[in-house]
Write a structure and sequence with these properties.
GO terms for molecular function: thiosulfate-cyanide sulfurtransferase activity. It comes from Scleromatobacter humisilvae. The protein is α/β, with parallel strands linked by helices and 387 residues long. Helix content is 35%, strand content 21%. The protein is built from 14 helices and 15 strands.
Length: 387
């Protein structure tokens, strides 16, 4: 028995010693040129020498699988487009940097399409469902009161540039492209299509994220290598990207609330202050920790229990908002949460409208707009009971 125990312990320690560091290179369809330049074998060899242990590198162009891997912690290192890196950052990874500067994407439609809203019942060409293009397209549609469900047809294909060809031959009414691709195409095909909406800037090229649980010295070695020696394997140098806000925006893309809400009045900061000054109730629909940490002075905490999709076609029956019953149907009520990417106050406003409340106001800018203006916030030291 003693010899067996010793043998099993030896096997366990040997297996641990042979455990790999794993890295995944994720290639977007339009990054195929850059992706083909990356040598998997060279990357594997160099990283193994840098860390003095075996590194296994895998490549994929399946964005859905890559996104699932970030949530499950399937790899120690992700070398990926920004939406994959953004998901990794939300699930226990730290950012090393990006290979390219931030860039914008454009939602473009044939000239007869007057606005984003006019795409209702129409057709759009998009790349893979988890591509950065589709994330951004979903966000721009939502911001203008549309869901993919409002379109007659969504064609998920593989190559974004082909969307411009689809516009050219009239087989699709809209697509999404990088600004540079659009500008080059429009010089040659002016008058065919026009810009309907523009995204905020998002990190370009590949982004590198490393598991936080790796030893600090290993993370430091990896960061130095990617910044100084990545070109030996076909990668561009990875520059530090100190601003995480673009990744936060990418993680929330496709979840932008509409800019309008029928049955409610969308209000800005000055209007909120005037309404509250005249006796309106300001309702904070966020979770307890957020309200406790900071909130607008005087705001009433009535959390919206959100389980439905962040989409204008959300299923309200999946959610809960018991605090609504505490509000006076005849009073002016202002709902707010964490800004344009937060759906709780939008859904709460919809619930109030559906329940027959007469004076519903939606502060879409919420806490970010309040804080950006330098307005005072306060903390709650008390334990918050469920509403």
């Amino acid at each position: 028995m003693k010899h067996l125990t010793t043998f099993l312990l030896f096997c366990l320690l040997s297996a641990r010693a042979l455990a790999d560091i794993t890295a995944l290179v994720v290639i977007e369809p339009t990054q195929r040129k850059d992706g083909m330049m990356v040598s998997r074998d060279a990357l594997q060899d160099h990283l193994s020498r840098v860390l003095h242990e075996q590194v296994t590198v895998t490549t994929t162009d399946d964005l859905s699988d890559a996104m699932r891997a970030t949530r499950s912690g399937g790899y120690d290192v992700f070398i990926s487009p920004p939406q994959v890196a953004a998901s990794a950052l939300a699930h226990g990874y730290a950012l090393v940097g990006a290979t390219d500067s931030d860039e914008q994407y454009l939602l473009v439609g044939r000239n007869r399409i007057g606005s984003v809203g006019a795409l209702r019942g129409g057709q759009i060409y998009l790349p893979q469902q988890d591509s950065i293009y589709t994330y951004l397209a979903r966000g721009m549609l939502n911001a203008n009161g549309l869901s993919f469900k409002d379109l007659k047809q969504v064609d998920y294909e593989r190559y974004p540039q082909a969307g411009l060809f689809a516009l050219l031959i009239g087989s699709s009414e809209a697509t999404i492209v990088r600004r540079n691709d659009w500008e080059d195409w429009n010089k040659e095909h002016g008058g065919i299509a026009k810009v309907l909406a523009v995204s905020s800037a998002v990190p370009g090229g590949f982004s590198v994220a490393v598991r936080k649980k790796l030893p600090a010295d290993e993370r430091a070695k990896l960061a130095r290598w990617f910044e100084n020696d990545a070109t030996t394997c076909g990668l561009k140098p990875v520059y530090a990207h100190p601003d995480l806000a673009p990744y936060t925006r990418v993680a929330e893309l496709g979840t932008f609330t509409p800019k309008a809400l029928p049955g409610a009045t969308v209000v800005t900061l000055p209007e909120v202050k005037a309404l509250v000054g005249n006796g309106a109730v300001l309702v904070d629909t966020r979770i307890a920790d957020e309200y406790r940490d900071k909130h607008i002075p005087g705001a009433l905490w009535l959390p919206y229990g959100e389980k439905s999709l962040k989409d204008i076609a959300f299923d309200a029956k999946a959610d809960s908002f018991p605090g609504l019953a505490r509000l006076d149907r005849e009073q002016n009520i202002v709902f707010q949460c964490n800004g344009p990417e937060c759906w709780k106050s939008y859904k709460a406003s919809r619930a109030a409208i559906a329940a027959g409340y007469k004076h519903v106001y939606w502060f879409r800018g919420g806490m970010p707009e309040w804080e950006t203006a330098g307005e005072r916030t306060e903390k709650s030291g008390q334990t918050l009971a469920s509403n």
